[in-house]
Batch of 2 targets.
Target 1
Amino acid sequence: MPKTSGRLLSLLSLLQARRDWPGALLAERLGISPRTVRRDVDRLRELGYPVVALKGPDGGYRLDAGAELPPLLFDDEQAVALAVALQIATTTGAGIEEAAARALTTVRQVMPARLRHRIDTLQVTAVQRPSVAPDPQVSGEVLMALSNAVHAREVLRFDYAPVSPPEATDRDRADPPPRRAEPHHLVTWGSRWYLVAWDLDREDWRTFRADRITPRIPTGPRFTPREVPGGEVAAFVAGRFQGFDGSGDWPCRGEVILDLPAAAVSRHTREGIVEELGPDRCRLVLGSWSWPGLAAAIGRFDADIEVVGPSELKDAFAYLARRYANAASHEPT
């Protein structure tokens, strides 16, 4: 029979692996008697682990949630995964950078030497995408409130801060009425948090930026969940950020031929289709929100351009050419 300390660790590991354990199965897995299992469960309770007994013909045990966080047990892969996740927490946009750093220090201190060495050699530098302004942070309280509403399937009432232009009047800046929505999913996209919800006032699906949401208490009545368009929330959100109109495509898509190697173009085109036409020539199919935006995106390649189509893309190039010519001829005041 293993020593008591070893049995307790094995028992705790099993209790964390699944929700309910029959007492006889625990005894079989640990190679001990059901009476010893009961004694070891009592020892775990004395250490602060909320192990509850299950009634029924077979009986059993469950590791329940407690008022305080007791010591946790991780295997090697879980410990490494946790350390990596804490190191890249600065890119989540959840405003938990300081807490993540303190958690990583705590986890590292209790790791065995072999794991501590692996963590110390795995230094991850989390680099956020460059932007004109830093990505807005969302407080943990707001994220928890949104998540709770999603889990409870309760109508959410919230204030949604508008993005007012500088020339907005006082009347435009007046506080809008609270929004009402059925929250379905809390998602992240590009270091920002979004709430996917059915807007009750507009009777349509919406994606709300979490950093602009101020939840109101209490929440509303429970609702029956709806199915997001297409059935998959990931595809729905991706489509919304691509100007999704039901066709699964960008609203503007064009085709050009560039005097550049396909390998050079594909390195800088995440969502376009690049086809090699020769050693220094390729075909590019790309989409965007608008025709001028598409022309500008293609123009960033330092190469001659042949527009295959459509005509709207040719017009957009002509429009930008006039604008750029005016900018080049403009004398500073």
Target 2
Amino acid sequence: MAAENTTVDRGRFPDAVTPWEDPVWRAEALGWVTGALAAHGLVETGARRVRLRPWSVLVRLAVAGRAPVWFKAVPPGAAFEAPLSEALARWVPDHVLTPLAVEAARGWMLLPDGGPVLWEALDGQPADPGYWEEPLRRYAAMQRDLIPYDDAIEALGVPAAGPRALPELFDRLVAENTAPAREDRVAPAALRPRVADWSEELASSGVADSLDHADLHEGQLFAPAPGRYAFFDRGDALVGHPFHSLLVPARTAFERCGPEVLPRLPDAPGGAEAASWLREPAVGPPL
């Protein structure tokens, strides 16, 4: 595909340096894409749209006879996203997209189009305080289904941050983050006893660790039709207490609907039973 048929979006990061600027890397990546498409009987046609961010390279590829496909490359620190996406398609196929191809060692993925994301599906509609309820119910069901795979998920390189590890992680973040002035680090440090108490409360809750998306906002799940959702973009994922995943949806719902939405989220359909169904023994299919 000729360079003149490629448009590049750098968003708010015009000076970010990504692998896309390296012609060798770019040629290797696009060659891999061509081979992966051919394995599915697909041929690229039309213009490419490239989205460059410090955390990923994302290329929209037009192909003949079907919806576009997407090439995604992530940096080494998030390279686990590629094999994790492939594994999730085996373990919880009803909740994720199935990659067309994965190059785990390089953190490359070729993905089908998932349709509109949630914020696009909501565009122009009145702010319904219940709009997160069904997605959260589906997401919580996925977390429960993944409990038997915690060790396998960590083996893919996904970081672990269970409740009892959080105080030590908190200490490291405060000590190693030298960007704020010394006086600005006093307030976070003062939270240390509360962090320890909260962590122990979570650890004692009897709720098993599972996959935490860690950035589940309205642009991180596809909503192609009413009641249908697919969760994606797991570069920030970790294995930890599943209730942590509620933080980002709560913030986005607050911004859209105001504070009255917050009491509804833990009581979403199926959400009220979260504590019980996550405590139940979970037995999954073989790896």
